[in-house]
Amino acid sequence: MSASAPSAPTSGAQIISRHVVIVVFDGAEAIDITGPASAFAKASIAGPGAYRLTIASPHGGNVMTSAGLAIADTSPLQTLDVSADIDTVIVAGGEEGALRRAVLEDGAQQWIASIAPHARRMASVCTGAFVLMAAGLLDSHQSTTHWRACDLLASMCTATDVQHDRVFVRDGDLWTSGGVTTGIDMALGMIEADLGRDVAMDIARDLALFVLRGGAESQVSRSLALQQGATSPVRDVIAWIESHLDADLSVDALAAVARMSPRNFSRAFSRDTGVSPARYVTRARVHFAKSLLRQTAWTQARIAQRSGFRSVDALQRAFRETFGEPVSAHRQGE
């Protein structure tokens, strides 16, 4: 059974159709293509006609992704010109060899450079930023790419200000995103800018995202980084904490989840993660509260309750200790 469609914009609102072109090539990362495409497709269910999607490649036809999945019947780039009325161009990423072929042999950057003055918004997912670089679009702009490639991008394009470890960066009408799944976050950011936060949030829920990440957040999950070096009981508890932030997360309760004594659990957790269970719980709760501040118009009392803090005072104290700033500094519009 399919999930319910995201809610449509208010009745009577005029729908502006935006032509989105996703540029792909042999060896492109499949999620760089399908992630944003799915987000825009959901937006067109919420508001019929809101987006028109074209998947294009240097030569058209079938394109084989790095995952071995074929994208069928792509449009040749050269058939898309100014008359195509393109609103947004998103360049997918891929491994170095695939990018080199797309730029040096297939001339993808030439089409990108030619269409950029006419499109409202130019963007890349992951290492697709290197194609934008080759087209000269990153000069005098902030940008980002996959965290493993940020240093390389900075060394190859000294005219761009590379923002390390960002989910996505918006600099005017130029958007760049980090690694792979961040293309979904960037697409939702575009949808939010076009259609409003409520539509973007509905799509995020429909896509079963754990949280809608803002551009300034880290590409690398704090929990994932800690899980990497943790033993099985601690690794499982870290995942359990993230989905039960408003529950009892005392050492005794967490030890019961791990099926360990409180003393042994506390030692194992601190050894594997470098922080005490209590400190990790506070960090997890404060970062979740920070996301809620961006995503909702909830009161601080409701956010405190939902993220597991006992009071607004406890929430405010945790923000000052973690970020050195008050809660209000992280609320959009405050």
How would you sum up the major sheet?
8 strands, mixed
Strand order of the largest sheet: 3-4-2-1-5-6-10-9
Shape field: elongated
Task: Give unreliable regions as ranges.
Answer: 1-5, 7-12
Order of helices and strands: EHEEEEHHEHEHEEEHHHHHHHHH
Mean pLDDT: 86
| Terminus-to-terminus distance | 41 Å
Class from secondary-structure proportions: alpha/beta
**What's the alpha carbon Rg, rounded to whole Å?**
22 Å
Q: What does the model show?
A:
- With 334 residues, this protein is an alpha/beta fold.
- It has 14 helices and 10 strands.
- The strands form 2 sheets. It has an 8-stranded mixed sheet. The protein has a two-stranded parallel ribbon with strand order 7-8.
- A hairpin with a 5-residue loop joins strand 3 and strand 4.
- Helix 8 (222-228) packs antiparallel against helix 9.
- 43% of the residues are buried.
- Residues 1-5 and 7-12 have low confidence and may be disordered.
